[in-house]
Amino acid sequence: MEELLAINVGIWSIVPPLLAIALALVTKEVIFSLVLGIVSGIMIYGFHADFAFGQFFSSTIEVVINNVSGNASMIIFLSLLGALVALITRAGGARAYGNWAVKKLATKRSASLTTAFLGIIIFIDDYFNCLTVGTVMKPVTDRHRISREKLAYLIDSTAAPICVIAPISSWSASAAGYFPAEAGISGMQAFVQAIPFNLYALLTIFMIFWIAGRKKADFGPMARAEARAERGSALKDADIAVNDDIAKLSVSDKGRVLDLVAPVLILVAVCIGAMLFYGGLWDGSGKSAVEAFGDTDANLSLSLGGLITLIVAFFFYVPRKLISFKDFFASITAGVKAMVPAIIILTLAWTIASVCKGMLSTGDYIAGLVGDSNMPVAIIPAIMFAAACGIAFSTGTAWGTFGILIPITITVCYQVAPHLSIPTLAAVMGGAVFGDHCSPISDTTILASTGAGCNHIDHVATQMPYALTVAGACFVGYLVTGFVTQAMVGGDTTGSGAALLTTGPAALVGLPVTLAILVALLLVFPKIFKAKRV
Fold first, then answer.
1. Between these two residues, 247 and 366, which has the higher pLDDT value?
2. Claim to verify: residue 269 and residue 172 sit in the same structural domain
3. What angle do CA 8, 14, 20 make, to 5 degrees?
4. Apex CA 96: angle with CA 95 and CA 98, to 5°?
5. CA torsion through residues 83, 87, 93, 94, sign
6. Are 219 and 57 in contact (CB under 8 A)?
7. Same domain, 62 and 80
């Protein structure tokens, strides 16, 4: 297949993602919206590249094929995980765990807080986080009539946000890898220094515990979703819509809690071990665990973990007659079928992201607008935060946003304001997480919906006001951080790479101010945006 090189189409580059997002929110049909966004992107590219008529169709298919082949290991992992969920359900593990957990987690508050804590603990990879937490906690949250939308929010808000501030994660390796060598410090050093300035990630994590731990803390669409779940009908509808094939399976009455816990623990252990193995921890090169996570193939590791766990499940369930030999493989089929909608949406999301980044240069266009704005030095962190939010929301990829903005940000700051390099780096990472967190075409958002068994657009619509609340507070926080840091250096913006490490005290001002703003909003919004009768 002939490679399609990226071209500059100007403002037309933002049409496909905005079209897809707007249509998804209006029509509630994600697949239709993504397809239309992809087709519009190919047409824009084709008109600028003088395509022949037939090339529009062939190029569309080629782009889809390239994204399927490039993400084959993730598709395999999703299929294996769907099969594992079906097997755990069929063996009675999910039912037994639900019965046990409801006794131990006797309230909605304890169930919500446990979900949040579990999401914090699984910080290695956001994909793994979304699907594992959903599998473990869905039986519990359903019993307490916590809406699937709330579960999806708790999962999504502890996936990318915790990964982007955890030094040992696939996200830290990605962000550090884009850090220019000429900056004077290593990418991992810069990543660690940026953690106190990553306001969006820190405040999102704070907000989930606030929402989970307080009564009547929800507002807007989420409050309405919780009211529907309290009546029970919404959870029943979600099960039919999302896991119809799994719901039809007969469930063993001999299952124990161990029949859910053991496969999940095996999956976690094997996936982490595979990440370290493929990252070269034991190849004799002397790599540390952090370096191994940075060099690993996460998707391949997850696929291997899923396969080994499925093999172990066979010998764990069939000899004990929880599942017959025939039913074991029937459950695999049902589990894979349940994952097909998520795989289709993910494939289309990867494709439109590829069109935006690899063909239309959407991110470069938005970054160029920011670079040409001649902004005052002190507002650089806030403006780059907003730019990262826009790019990641439009393209659905945080890592792609890292690749576009981090080199530009550090190069610009190194020349005109080295003292702002670390806060601005954190602002870019936080803004990228915002876009990844709430964009309808983000893979993590899709996987959070899948893990929770929630309608995807319902998840987006209920989570968006929460994400925007944090982002608004963070924008003000980055303004404060920029001006405080500027005041600390007394207007002297000269320096070297060493100046990147001298801005720590600014976090002592920016973070508390942002937190105070967020708390004020969280106290006021539930009173203003109350749930209407539904």
1. 366
2. yes
3. 135
4. 65
5. positive
6. no
7. no
| Segment 29-45, tens digit of pLDDT | 778 888 898 889 888 98
101 vs 202: CA distance, rounded Å: 29
Residues listed for the chain: 534
| Biggest CA pair distance of the chain | 74
| Cβ count near 78 (within 10 Å) | 24
Looking up tokens 């003292």 gives: 419
Which of 352, 377, 410 corresponds to the end of one domain? Answer: 352
- Using a 10 angstrom Cβ sphere, with 0-12 exposed, 13-18 middle and 19 or more buried, the burial of residue 102 is middle
Residue 455 lies in a domain: no
Exposure string for 105-139, b = 16+ CB within 10 A, e = fewer: beebebbbbbbbebbbebbbbbbbbbbbbbbbbbb
How many domains in the chain? 2
Say whether 443 sits in a helix, a strand or coil. Answer: helix
Closest CA to 235 of 100, 138, 111: 138
In this structure, the answer to whether residues 60 and 84 fall within a common structural domain is no
Q: Is residue 195 part of a domain?
A: no
**Residue-range definition of the domain harbouring residue 337:** 72-178+246-352
- If you write DSSP's letter for every residue of 102-133 in order, what string do you get? HHHS-SHHHHHHHHHHHHHH--S-HHHHHHHH
Condensed to tens digits (0 to 9), the pLDDT of residues 118-164 reads 888 776 667 767 777 887 788 888 888 899 999 999 999 888 888 88
Please tell me the distance from the alpha carbon of residue 460 to that of residue 498, in angstroms, as a whole number: 42
Distance from C-alpha of 432 to C-alpha of 444, rounded to nearest angstrom: 12
The residue out of 352, 386, 406 marking a domain boundary is 352
